[in-house]
Design goal:
Low-confidence stretches of chain B: none
Oligomer: heterodimer
Number of helices of chain B: 2
Largest sheet of chain B: 2 strands, antiparallel
CATH topology of the domain at 4-257 and 407-486 in chain A: Amidase signature (AS) enzymes
CATH architecture of the domain at 4-257 and 407-486 in chain A: Alpha-Beta Complex
Radius of gyration of chain B: 23 Å
Low-confidence stretches of chain A: none
CATH topology of the domain at 1-35 in chain B: Histone, subunit A
CATH class of the domain at 4-257 and 407-486 in chain A: Alpha Beta
CATH architecture of the domain at 1-35 in chain B: Orthogonal Bundle
Shape of chain A: globular
Largest sheet of chain A: 11 strands, mixed
Helix content of chain A: 25-40%
Strand content of chain A: 5-15%
Order of helices and strands of chain A: HHEHEHEHEHEEHEHEHHHHEHHEEH
């Protein structure tokens, strides 16, 4: 079969169960694709060639014995490198974890292994998930498969790029301020950020604990839906995880009578013309399908970036205090300097100086400042109060609509190097994804168009808490009426 | 501030960061235009408090694995540079 690596998992799994293809054949096809593409895309930090081939052969034996295997047994999945995989290098895109082999699996990894999915490798990311372009990786940037001069988005840029280029079938990312949805939009794939608490964070390297969520990045909505059902659920090892009672049912893509809200604050002159045009085209699709479009207002939207870039760095500065060169990770090898009184403090400071990249240091400084005595109320506390206002905006909007539709990013994928020297400009590119994290809501990015240059554009659907199924029903309806999800880069 | 965060910064970094952080903090000023007098802060998206688990002894990682990633170890301990000179 030609180009099997471009098929979604729900189609491949049928071929596997009918024994029309073998797991080994599937895995080899994906590995060959990696051979062909990886030099220019650089989506991976680690590729587990031998291990996955061995696991594939093992599964083929069980298939031929007619053992009953889970639906997705044998499907390759790529994992963002901030999710712990036992015995498999987990770097977080950082020098400080460049030698870290976790002694345990994250809960999501335990769950996907139980379903027989095969880990093909660990994907590139902005260091500690801090960034919107995957340029902040210690291992160098990932390139957008649609145009190699451009960024794939971030921070889960490696996962999104690997999915669209056929270097994997499925992937997992994490989203703190848009890190699943924005790269999904930039690469023309589907990315779901679940409700805060829907998916266990146990084994996810912590960045901003009140905002982080793990979620699927896939070739279409059905794959995102099934993968979400595999990873969701309450976990005793994450006290903030929630029981997800939604049952897996067939997606019908019914949107007749569904009330979709269009927040006027998301359709401003700052939005790129082509992004605006394609997102507005989607209105027509939904109208044709019988949905009801309503203008709504989320008045505090413009304050979200400022609040987020206080809250997230504050939590990060505290979470990243654990990297001290003692328990695991990199430790400085520089010799002691004269005049430094405390050898341990000197070791900490140098380890962190050498181990962290620029953006991480910037955010640690920002967070330390916002939490320090004298500034705490003016910055941290103020930001958390503004967060309440943003959360209320959504609660009020959801009185009149069931789902909210917005662009994912104000621009199509930008050039590598375009924003990296100007952090504030980079931060502002997250303007439409950040409010969702502050409010803890589920949201999905799906492809909705292409620029004249051939760059993908995504639209964001935001749902009520724990209404992932409803959200994906609406996304599925759009997907079934369009064919943007079927396009692939060369 | 760098000292508080246990970060050593080069002169070059100090220069760039102070400029960039000032610019970012200036942007944050816009929050001050909002009246939040009677607004409770949202520290967490979920209204959770005191999630307990059963007080049962569970298996933990063996010492060897816990120390497996340590940059320096000795006789079952993490090792750090000498603190008290003697």
């Amino acid at each position: 079969m030609k180009e099997i690596f471009h098929l979604p998992a729900h189609k491949i799994s049928k071929l596997l169960h009918k024994r029309e293809i073998s797991v080994e054949g599937l895995v080899k096809s994906v590995l060959e694709r990696i051979e062909e593409k990886e030099k220019e895309i650089r989506a991976f930090i680690t590729i587990e060639r031998e291990k996955i081939l061995e696991e594939a052969r093992e599964l083929d034996k069980r298939f031929s014995k007619r053992e009953e295997l889970p639906r997705w047994a044998g499907i390759p999945i790529a994992i963002k490198d901030n999710i712990c995989t036992q015995g498999m290098l987990t770097t977080c895109g950082s020098k400080i974890l460049s030698n870290f082999y976790p002694p345990y699996d994250a809960t999501v990894i335990r769950k996907i292994k139980k379903e027989g999915l095969l880990i093909i490798g660990k994907t590139n990311m902005d260091e500690f998930a801090m960034g919107s372009s995957t340029e902040n990786s210690y291992f160098g940037p990932t390139h957008n498969p649609w145009d190699l001069r451009r960024v794939p988005g971030g921070s889960s840029g490696g996962s999104a790029a690997a999915v669209i280029s056929g270097e994997t079938i499925l992937s997992l990312g994490s989203d703190t301020g848009g890190s699943i949805r924005q790269p999904a939009s930039f690469c023309g794939v589907v990315g779901l950020k679940p409700t805060y608490g829907s998916v266990s964070r146990y084994g996810l390297v912590a960045f901003a604990s009140s905002l982080d969520q793990i979620g699927p990045i896939t070739k279409d909505v059905l794959d995102a839906y099934f993968l979400f059902h595999i990873i969701k659920g309450r976990d005793s090892q994450d006290s903030t995880s929630l029981p997800q009672t939604s049952l897996e049912e067939n997606l019908k893509g019914e949107v007749k009578g569904t009330k979709i809200g269009l927040p006027k604050e998301y359709f401003t002159p700052g939005v790129d013309k082509e992004v605006k045009r394609w997102v507005e085209e989607s209105f027509k699709v939904f109208q044709t399908l019988g949905a009801e479009l309503i203008e709504i207002s989320l008045p505090h939207t413009e304050f979200a970036v400022a609040a987020y870039y206080i809250i997230a760095p504050s939590e990060a500065s505290s979470n990243l205090a654990r990297y001290d060169g003692v328990h695991y990770g990199y430790r400085t090898v520089s010799p002691r300097e004269k005049g430094e009184e405390n050898p341990v403090v000197e070791m900490y400071e140098k380890t962190r100086q050498e181990g962290f990249g620029e953006e991480v240091k910037r955010r640690i400084m920002l967070g330390t400042y916002a939490l320090s005595a004298g500034y705490f109320e003016a910055y941290y506390l103020k930001a958390q109060k503004v967060r309440t206002l943003i959360k209320r905006d959504f609660e009020e909007a959801f009185q009149t609509c069931e789902v909210i539709l917005t662009p994912v990013s104000p621009t199509p994928p930008f050039l590598i190097g375009e924003k990296i020297k100007d952090p504030l400009k980079m931060y502002l590119s997250d303007i439409f994804t950040i409010p969702v994290n502050l409010a803890g809501l589920p949201a999905v990015s799906i492809p909705c168009g292409f620029t004249e240059e051939g760059l993908p554009i995504g639209l964001q659907l935001i749902g009520r808490p724990l209404e992932e199924v409803k959200l994906l029903q609406v996304a599925f309806a759009f997907q079934e009426a369009t064919d943007f999800h079927k396009r692939r880069p060369l | 501030m760098a000292r508080l965060a246990r970060l050593k910064l080069s002169e070059e970094e100090k220069k760039i960061f102070s400029h960039q952080l000032n610019e970012i903090l200036e942007y944050m000023e816009k929050l001050k235009t909002l009246n939040t007098e009677n607004i409770e802060p949202t520290f967490h998206p979920l209204p959770l408090s005191n999630v307990w688990r059963e007080d049962k002894v569970k298996k933990t990682l063996p010492q060897e694995e816990v120390l497996g990633n340590a940059p320096e170890k000795e006789r079952g301990y993490f090792k750090v540079p000498r603190i008290i000179e003697g």
